[in-house]
């Protein structure tokens, strides 16, 4: 004896329906009802116990992501136009999953370098990226904050307490935008002229200021003027410093300066600038940023975040 299930009834209904000439809206409704009943009677395919049922690809999520990317690029194009850039800045690639090995630049080592923070001017990478770093903190231009935020340009800063103590809040706003704040001593002295203990007070003292004002003790330190000796790096290490990046190029509002003989950019180069305004330059921080971005973009470079490679 065979058990008759609903599918048999559906089959019989289809045969009967094929012999009847259906007309008008009533026929359409009847066929829809039959189809619904048949669908309900078929066996439902389920996953194995403990497994989630198969789902269709998240097409809507992909569409939403693509729309988000288009909107971000449109905003970047609009920002480039608003800040009078010659070209829209290029977007940096994703940071490497495995960080490059950072060692002291050849000729920049000190005795016992293996155990001390490395001084370097370029991050080892084949990507066409450069890193913008800005020193001291004398000029506090709100337009510069807006410009870099709207353009989504990463940069790193190295702060000196004597230059920022009149407005710590300006750099709090910068930090809130994702900028890493690092150590550039308390008073910006020529460190090699100081004793080990004096250098340590300059570096560790700035670590204390950074922790009090910004809630963090930096691991990056830049010696003023790019000058240092073994005591500098020993003192820096004792204060919690892991890296001592300096620079390969320096950008001003009206010109560039270079460390290398070819006077050119290279993948992974660190570029230096300063917080300066019309009192020191024939221009503003936004003028400097414009000169920097127009140059690197024209040469096919994107600006990346230094800390992502360390």
The percent of residues in helical segments reads 25-40%
Helix run count: 9
Instruction: Give, in order, the helices and strands.
Output: HHHEEHEHHEHHEEEEHE
The main sheet comes to: 7 strands, mixed
Calculate the mean pLDDT score and round it: 86
Gyration radius, in Å: 32 Å
How would you characterize the overall build of this protein?
The structure is a single chain. Strands 2, 3, 4, 6, 7, 8 and 9 form a seven-stranded mixed sheet that branches. Helix 7 runs parallel beside helix 8. The chain has helices at residues 6-18, 24-41, 59-82, 142-151, 161-164, 168-176, 196-214, 230-238, 285-298, and strands at residues 119-120, 129-136, 156-159, 180-183, 244-245, 249-251, 256-258, 269-274, 302-303. The protein is globular. 27% of the residues are buried. It is α/β, with parallel strands linked by helices and 310 residues long.
Keywords:
two-stranded parallel ribbon; 310 residues; alpha/beta; 11% strand; 9 helices; single chain; 7-stranded mixed beta sheet
Describe how the helices and strands are arranged.
Blueprint: H1 6-18, H2 24-41, H3 59-82, E1 119-120, E2 129-136, H4 142-151, E3 156-159, H5 161-164, H6 168-176, E4 180-183, H7 196-214, H8 230-238, E5 244-245, E6 249-251, E7 256-258, E8 269-274, H9 285-298, E9 302-303
Parallel strand pairs: 1-5, 2-3, 2-8, 2-9, 3-4, 6-8
Antiparallel strand pairs: 6-7
